[in-house]
Specification:
about 170 residues, mainly alpha, 5 helices
């Protein structure tokens, strides 16, 4: 009696396709996760006098850096200089906001002309510097809260892509 066993190495992992499969899946997962977070941050961002289409909410965006590489990362951010102030709040006793930045807000919020807004802007800036924001003593926390509320959804996204990777490597 003779028993023979032969093992053939075949499949994506033995053909050197593993890095490509993993990088592609992780990039897709990162795009999905950052798009989710961008939507959630926008939902949590206070709507200013500019409405939903203007203001801080319209400046929030997401980006995936290093797609298709082992160092893929996703970020959700705003380039607005007010993003951090709204996120973290403004405590009393800080410096006044820069000159000129509140004029359009004063016009819309208080229903004043541009000239009237320019005349009282210093007083409003000084009050903000002295008293901070009473509305958000600890900030709106839209970035922090969006991540905290969705961490399990993000883990689920990456777990699903992990299962996809295993299936492709075993094919």
């Amino acid at each position: 009696m003779e028993l023979r066993v032969s093992v053939k190495q075949k499949g994506a992992i033995f053909e050197g396709k593993a890095p490509e499969i993993i990088n592609k899946a992780m990039t897709s997962a990162m795009y999905e996760a950052t798009e989710l977070l961008e939507r959630k941050v926008k939902d949590l961002t206070p709507q200013g006098v500019g409405g939903a289409k203007g203001g801080l909410r319209s400046t929030i965006q997401s980006e995936v850096r290093g797609p298709g590489t082992p160092m893929v990362k996703g970020i959700v951010f705003t380039q607005s200089k007010y993003g951090e102030v709204i996120e973290k709040g403004r405590t009393a006793g800080k410096a006044m906001p820069p000159s000129g930045v509140l004029i359009s807000w004063i016009e819309k919020k208080m229903g004043l002309s541009e000239g009237e807004a320019q005349r009282i802007e210093f007083v409003v800036r000084r009050a903000i510097g002295k008293h901070g924001f009473k509305t958000w003593p600890e900030g709106a926390g839209m970035f922090e809260d969006a991540l905290a509320e969705n961490i399990f959804n993000i883990e689920k996204i990456f777990n699903n892509y992990g299962f996809s990777i295993v299936a492709q490597l075993n094919a």
